[in-house]
Structure formats: structure tokens, C-alpha cells
Amino acid sequence: MTTASLLPSRASVVDKFGRRLSYVRLSVTELCNLSCTYCNPVQGCIATHPYRLGWDDLDFLADVCVNELGVEAIRVTGGEPTIRPGLTDWICGIRRHAGLIDVALTTNGILLAKMAKELADVGTTRVNVSFDTFDADDFREVTRGGNIARVLEGIVEAKHHFRRVKINAVALRGVNFTQLDRFVEFSHEHEVEVRFIELMPIFDQKEYFHANFIGVEELKNELSRLGHQLIPEGSGAAEGNKSGYGPATTYCVEGSRARLGFISQMSNTKCLTCNKLRLTSDGALKPCLLSPEEVDMAPAIKTRDRVAITAFMVRAFLERPERYDEVVAKTKSLGRSMQATGG
Questions:
Q1: 155: burial class by Cβ within 10 Å (0-12, 13-18, 19+)?
Q2: Are strands 165-171 and 126-130 parallel, antiparallel or unpaired?
Q3: Residue 75, SS3?
Q4: How far is CA 320 from the centre of its chain?
Q5: d(Cα 13, Cα 23) in Å, to the nearest integer?
Q6: DSSP classification of residue 8
Q7: 313-317: long-range contacts at Cβ-Cβ below 8 A with a sequence spacing of 24 or more?
Q8: Residue 262: what are its φ and ψ, rounded to 5°?
Q9: How does 268-303 read in b/e, with b if 16+ C-beta sit within 10 Å?
Q10: Which of 23, 28, 30 is nearest to 44 (CA)?
């Protein structure tokens, strides 16, 4: 297949399984002001190229994604994106693209209280805040030093500026399985969607994965035991419904304003609906989070080679398998920690 034959007309990148590329997760830094155990297996920052790509490089990359590939949603990730100076100016800049419908941000919330208004003002559509436990000591241990009060303050402030705020809670045995009632109450009280995400065996964290993994069905069963009836959001489909561009299925809780989402990538993969590619902050393209495969696009980005970048991304999307290899994911190194990949 030639490079020319790979190039799409806008918004036409559809693979043989009917999946259309519409969503890119773009990491803007490997640096983080926390060091969560499930995200980074070692204490401290592991970034080797924290700002290999400048804001102008990332602006060009967003331009290619939207105007050449038909991408309509970009999620800004890290590391922790809010610690990189210039973030809001860059977001303001990429909002110039008419085809870009959704610009979301994933953050640990440490700086959100002071940045929420500015992020909303420059066109950030919504925010997801990582928050795994209501126990301050457990929070400090899981995040290796995080201040739970600052994150809670950030969530409350974000509610003043964004129509939709989501909480990302990685399901961890021994940490938050006994706090499901608290998460439902918090969702109801603050009208935020809580999304429970299955732990993934990223990098070399296989022992950690097996010791701490909780599947979505176990979570749902426990919620039912606690008296919370889950009602599929929207049409009432038996499996629940997707909310937004990501892989979550979302439910309401009967008799409350609580909304719960579930991401079951390990136990019940949503690979056949996957519409995204990932780009790391040092310019690597990752077709799948649970595969070690990646392509170094940094040279093409630096030289503004629009044709090469488009071809790289189209080929990566079209050549993805039907689903990830579960044996590889659970037994082999996946190459990068979540912090270095882009959470």
C-alpha cells in the first residue's frame, strides 16, 4: 500500500471493523506533581523528555488531526497537563479549528481550583478528575503524597465552570471497593459522574495488577448488594450506554441524581467500538494502550511533514487488530508507564 493510497479525504478513516477515527488522546507532558502507584511504578518523576514537543509542534499536530483526519475530539492528558506553562494559550489556539467539537482535560485536580475558570474560558469543554479514595491516608499513599483537600476543592470549583465534570476512580482492591456507597453519595450530592475504571497491567506492573484488580461485574454486584439499582442511561439498552467519546458505559442510580460509568477494558473489552489513537508527549503514536507497539512521529512533527504524519496515523488506525492480545497485555512489558504514555 502506498503512502498516497493511505491518505484519506477528511473524516473518512474507517477500518475494516467499521471503527471511525474521531478521537485523539494527546499527552502534553510526562511530568506530574503526583506519583500514583498504578500510573508510575517507581517513586518520583520518570520523565526523560518532558517537553520534547513545543506548543507550536502540538498545535501543528492538532491541526493535522482535525483538518486531515477528521478528528472531532481531543483529550488533553499527561503526566499532569496543568503543570505545563502555556497550556491554556494552546487550548485557546486549537479551538480555532471548526471541526473540533470537544476538548476535554484529564487532571489529578491538584491545581484545578485555581485553573478551572481559565480552562473553561479558553474553550475546554469538560474535565475528568482522578480521585480514587475518600480516605486521606489512603489517598496520600496511592498518590505518594497527594493532598485530598486540594483535589476536592478543585472538583467543587470545576462544577462552577463546566457543565459536565467526571471523576475517574481506578478500582483498587483494598483501597476503594468498600467505599462504593461514598462514591454514589458524592455523585448525587455534587452531580458529577463517577467512572470506575478497571486497573490495567501497564508497563511491568503485572504483580500489582493481579493483586489489586477488581472487575466491573464485581463492582456492579456489590453496588446491587448495597441497594443501588443501576438504570441504563438514555435508551435503556441492557448493557448501559456510552457517554461521550470514550469507552465508558453509563448508568443512573434509581432514586438519586448519581450517575456511574464503568470502563471494563480488561474484563469486557470495548475494542470493537474504539475510535481513538494516543500520542505521547515525546511524539510517539500508540495505536493501543494495551500493546507495546508505537511509532516515533517526532521527526515528522518537527519538520512539519503533514503527509507523513497523516500516513502514520491512518496506517496505525487501519492496521489495528480486532482487539488487543490479552496474553501479551497480562504477561509482557507494554513499554511505558501510564504516566509516560498519557493517562
A1: buried
A2: parallel
A3: strand
A4: 19
A5: 11
A6: P
A7: 313/13, 313/21, 313/64, 313/65, 313/69, 313/277, 313/285, 314/6, 314/7, 314/8, 314/13, 314/21, 314/69, 315/1, 315/6, 316/277, 316/285, 316/287, 317/13, 317/15, 317/19, 317/21, 317/277, 317/287
A8: -135, 130
A9: ebebeebbbbbbbbbbbbbbbbbbeebbebbebbee
A10: 30
Q: What is the set of domains in the chain, with CATH numbers? A: 3-8+21-341 (3.20.20.70)
Distance CA 281, CA 295 (A): 13
Angle at CA of residue 274, ends 237 and 79, nearest 5°: 115
- Residue in the structure block whose three cell numbers are 464503568: 262
Q: Which one, of 254, 251, 206, lies nearest residue 38 by Cα?
A: 206
All three cell numbers of 30, joined, read 510526562
Residue 233: per-residue pLDDT: 85
Is residue 88 within 8 A of residue 39, CB to CB? The reply is no
**150: helix, coil or strand?**
helix
CA 170 to chain centre: 12
Quickly tell me which residue has 483526519 as its cell.
69
Grid cell of 273 as nine digits: 467500538
- Cα(39)–Cα(306) distance, rounded to whole angstroms? 32
Mean pLDDT by 10 residues, the chain (343 residues): 45 90 96 90 60 94 97 96 97 97 98 98 98 97 96 98 96 96 98 96 84 96 98 58 70 97 93 95 94 95 98 97 92 84 80
Q: Which amino acid is at 262?
A: F
Collapse the DSSP code of 23 into the 3-class scheme (helix H, G, I; strand E, B; otherwise coil) and give the result: strand
Residues paired with residue 241 on neighbouring β-strands, in sequence order: 250
DSSP result, 227-272: T--EEESSS--TT-EE-TTSS-EEEEETTSS-EEEEE-TTTS--GG
Cβ(259)–Cβ(236) below 8 Å: no
Helix (H) or strand (E) holding 27: strand 23-27
